[in-house]
Here is the input.
Amino acid sequence: QFDKILPRLEKEASSANVKLDVHILDMRLSPAKAFVKFASDHDVGLMVVGSIAKKGWTKHLGSDISDEIMDLNPSCNVILVE
Here is the structure.
């Protein structure tokens, strides 16, 4: 499905005069480690990450990728968006 979405993203970025770079991450690592490694290797200044709002017991039972990214203490600023 990504092959169908990418041309639209490129078109939207171009019309908004925004530079769009697409990189395939090394998924031999965990997703969180792959994001943090990419940010470090490419001198990323800001990472925006979606986070799932958890309530009740679910907030104590496991984590999502955003929690793991924050636990890895990335070298860039991170904004968590719920």
Remarks:
- The first strand starts at residue 46 and ends at 50.
- The chain has three helices and two strands.
